[in-house]
Amino acid sequence: MKFSFSSEDLVKLRGDMLALPVFEEEPARERAVVTLDKPLGGLLVRLIDEERFKGKKTQSLSLHTHSKIGAARLLLLGAGPRKDFEPSEMRPLAARAARAAQSAGARSLVLLLPDLDRPSQERAVQLATEGVELGRYRFDKYLSEDRRQPDTLVEANFAIEKNGGRIDGLRRMVDRGKVVAAAVARARDLVNEPAGEMTPRRIAEIAKDLAKKHGFEAKVLGPKECEKLGMGMYLAVARGSDEEPRLVHLTYKPKGKARKRVALIGKGVTFDSGGLSLKPSASMEDMKMDMAGAAVVIQAIAALAELGAPVEVHAIAPCTENMPSGRAYKLGDVLKSLAGKTVEINNTDAEGRLALGDAITYAQSFEPDEIFDFATLTGACLVALGPHIAGVMTNQPKLRERWLGAAALAGEEMWPLPLPERLKEQLKSEIADMKNTGERYGGTLTAGLFLKEFAGDTPWVHVDLAGPAFAEKEWGHVPKGGTGFGIATVVEYLTARE
User: Fold this and answer.
1) Each residue of 400-409: pLDDT tens digit?
2) Is 176 a catalytic site residue?
């Protein structure tokens, strides 16, 4: 995909489609609308009135220009109230423009960027680049040829105000946006693959290929190596499946002195039946996505290596299936973790925290300065925060604020949740150090408290992706299916200047 910039008069700009973000405040009086309305003979303003286009985020309006301006088609995209506009809004806006362009069979798209200050303009360019690339995303691998939508779009031109010749900085933001978008798209592919294809062994192969391509280290541990280490919780989850587990450990080190050492841990349950605590059939239909956390950390470290991030990063993905069989772990079993803690099982469908607990302990062996884990962990988080927002828990409030700041800049919605000490009572066991689940209410918080036991004193953040990791319907830059949520924030956090 080719990206370019132009500060030429909008009327003269050539392209198959010209897309204009339009704000709610009197859309017919927007400067760009007024500029284009004159050569169109008043048609644009008349259509805005007739179609009741108000500039709301869900609205769009398109028309043929019949060669009265340089662009063949014109697309107005509702951008909502101007006062609420942030650069992060450019990602979904650009994605909507790219989808519309593809639907029209366009090869070239011109997208007008709102007038912003220099730092905001740079971020808007990055996020618009991500939006164009992610708006083109399709997972059509298993569709017949006649059902695949052709990918016609090959060029995007960002129309901007004159900026004193400082285009080079904006081009760097395009390059960065392309790296992030590519990582997100690869993560979506991993999540969207059927569980029969995306097994633990297949994830390990993909991770090793990425490491070879981007020049970082890859180590994969099988069941014997994990047993030798003493990863009793993780291996118990894997016991019911004929598919062998694989613990993926990727390591990226910068060329110079690392600013810090960070562990990224992702839940990699490639299919979750619930084990002997079997899920209903309808609740199993999308459980191929229970490895979205692993997809995040594997693809994020590849993006960080490509961008030359100034930190040492370890990406760890404990991958397994959770299946029922005669070998499956049972309710009432007591498991011994890598940390030495014993855990009584009262729900085999609370398996992700078991795999993560051992992975967090494994990560402690190389003394990270910070640990982040990503998991589609609890349905309770989806109930609490809905389908678009991730829950964030931590043992270090200041770290949480830095992380949430990065999420805001990256345009990914996250919300802080508490870890109330009073709820630890629910995890008490009479025969072991702890149980793996508490009571029904506050399930997201007791899951966080369980993981906190393994983080110890290391600064740690837990991100519950249950809602935003998998979309039930298309919206903004997100297609139905796997979303790649979390990668943009990881990249923003670990490449930001400190």
Assistant:
1) 999 999 999 9
2) no
